[in-house]
Write a structure and sequence with these properties.
With 258 residues, the chain is of the alpha/beta class. It has a single domain, classed as Rossmann fold, CATH 3.40.50.300. It is built from 10 helices and 11 strands. The strands form 2 sheets. It has a 6-stranded mixed beta sheet, sandwiched between helices. A 5-stranded antiparallel beta sheet has the order 2-3-1-5-6. Helix 4 packs across helix 5 and helix 4 packs parallel to helix 6. It is globular. The chain binds adenosine-5'-triphosphate. Adenosine-5'-triphosphate binds next to strand 3 and helix 2. GO terms for molecular function: ATP binding; ATP hydrolysis activity.
């Protein structure tokens, strides 16, 4: 089980002139700090898929980066099966498969080499890496480009390769930051099927998205973040019940604080 409790993260603002107009008006700007995440809590049980929703700049990526250990929280805690991610980051890195917003593939390497490299970093044997790549190639439909250099991959090819790379080590929790953004309908469906496959294997998934249709299709739970705070954290059924005819209206209701 994953428990995120009262996370907070602020960033120093070196030059306020570099902030956008929206950020300058944002209540999270206080003195020399921008309090990106102020109080985020959520839970995810084995086999559950949690959808993380929120307007642009709400704090979703910052939250997921703390969960993946890329950022250290200022306060709050994250526990995976009773172990604190903050206290034991190395343990957490083994347990989590994290897809960040930037795919960051090595362009001079092939897709396969990029994935293999991560497997090696995780200490996997060549045989275990090969077996896992075969499996991922099947479910993520990588065959046609797996042995091409990543340099001129399409957005979809890059994203599928980055997802395969993120889960090469058989993580016990998968965290995906906007996994379908920029993908065409077929590639997005492949990624959604992949998430569904993880769910069937009882592997918990937490993913951020702006697509409410994906939430309806896949999620057991919904967490909405607004201005760095959790404003909704409940089952998909409870989310839908906020406005039975429209998920968009349900989402807007969570933001209005009603
Ligand atoms: N390293 C940083 N330094 C300063 N401000 C930051 C930093 N990282 C994020 N922020 C700010 O924190 C806020 C939350 O950003 P975050 O990327 O977490 O939002 P998000 O919910 O993922 O948004 P989007 O849906 O647009 O991806 C934004 O205003 C962003 O500019």
């Amino acid at each position: 089980m994953i428990t995120i409790s009262h996370l907070a993260k602020k960033f120093a603002v070196d030059n306020p002139k570099k902030l956008s107009e929206q950020e300058r008006q944002d209540p999270r700007l206080s003195g020399k700090f921008f309090h990106s995440v102020q109080d985020v809590s959520l839970t995810c049980e084995k086999g559950e898929v949690v959808g993380l929703l929120g307007p642009n700049g709400a704090g979703k990526t910052t939250t997921l980066r703390m969960l993946s250990t890329a950022l250290k929280p200022d306060s709050g805690d994250i526990q995976i099966d009773g172990n604190s991610v903050v206290a034991k980051p190395l343990l957490a890195r083994k347990a989590i498969g994290f897809l960040s917003g930037a795919t960051g593939l090595y362009g001079r390497l092939t897709g396969r080499e990029n994935i293999e490299y991560f497997g090696q970093l995780h200490g996997m044997s060549k045989a275990a890496i090969d077996t896992k790549i075969d499996e991922l190639s099947e479910v993520l439909e990588l065959h046609t480009f797996l042995d091409r250099k990543c340099d001129n991959f399409s957005t979809g090819m890059k994203q599928k390769t980055a997802i395969a790379r993120a889960v090469i080590h058989n993580p016990s929790l998968v965290v995906l930051d906007e996994p379908t953004t920029g993908l065409d309908i077929m590639a997005a469906q492949t990624v959604l099927n992949f998430i569904n496959g993880l769910k069937e294997q009882n592997i918990p998934v937490i993913f951020s998205t702006h697509h409410l249709g994906e939430v309806a299709e896949l999620c057991d739970k919904v967490t909405v973040i607004n201005n760095g705070r959790t404003v909704f954290n409940d089952s998909l059924a409870s989310f839908k019940a906020l406005a039975p005819d429209s998920l968009h209206q349900a989402f807007l209701t969570t933001l209005s604080g009603k």
